[in-house]
Amino acid sequence: MISPFLAEVIGTACILLFGSGVVAGCVLKDSKAENAGWIVITWAWGIGVMLGIYASGNISGAHLNPAVTIALATIGEFPWASVPSYILAQFIGAFLGSTIVWAAYYPHWEKTEDKGAKLAVFSTGPAIRNLPANLLTEAIGTFILVFAILFIGTNNIADGMNPFIIGLLILGLGLSFGGPTGYAINPARDLGPRIAHAILPIAGKGDSDWGYAWVPVVGPIIGGVLGALTFAMIF
């Protein structure tokens, strides 16, 4: 059996393969999925999370998100000593997944003039740039994510159904709270691919918007910890 570290790499890579992949299909020029829209994007992110959990759940617990790992450690459900290795694995997986998407859509980068669209394949950005409001949105989204994951776990659900249900949770979060910021709700999902965007030789790319990069890192950690603490107080 593979190690929990490798399971987190593979699971997080699955999320980005489908997530970055669908954004690339929707925003890059001359893609057959160009302009397919937000519903298509949110469905693919949900499917990516579902498959990432199926790939890693029995091995690592399928955190696939530093905010989830830190939140679980905060309420004593995960050892702090294992937090750094899990987070490193998640960042590696997110970087690798988005890099594979870059390769898969290789001819389309040169065809696409919009630098912001190219960055959107890798990382999130706000619809209205208001950093305190953007931070709050990311915190709220991740609060709901962690709180919901924990209360889903209190139910007796048929074996193998939890990843499917959490995939639907991601879909619902995207539909309801994705509009303001693109719902990163996961520091690795945003920062890992943003680093890939900065490093990869993407034709005609712009800057990686490092001035915003802290928001989808700090917001999800705050929201995730508060979600876990609220769950612990209530349940």
SSE layout and pairing:
Blueprint lengths: L3 H24 L10 H23 L5 H9 L8 H22 L1 H6 L3 H8 L8 H22 L9 H16 L9 H13 L15 H20 L1
Subcellular location: Membrane
InterPro entries: Aquaporin-like (IPR023271), MIP (IPR000425), MIP/Aquaporin (IPR050363), MIP_CS (IPR022357)
GO molecular function: glycerol channel activity
Structure write-up:
Keywords: Membrane, Transmembrane, Transmembrane helix, Transport. InterPro entries: Aquaporin-like, MIP, MIP/Aquaporin, MIP_CS. This is Glycerol facilitator. The chain crosses the membrane at residues 6-28, 35-56, 87-105, 131-152, 164-185, 213-234. Pfam families: MIP. The protein is globular and about 50 Å long. The termini are far apart. The longest helix has 24 residues, at 4-27. The chain has ten helices and no strands. The model has no long low-confidence stretch (mean pLDDT 97). The protein is an all-alpha fold. It has one domain: Glycerol uptake facilitator protein (Up-down Bundle). The chain has helices at 4-27, 38-60, 66-74, 83-104, 106-111, 115-122, 131-152, 162-177, 187-199, 215-234.
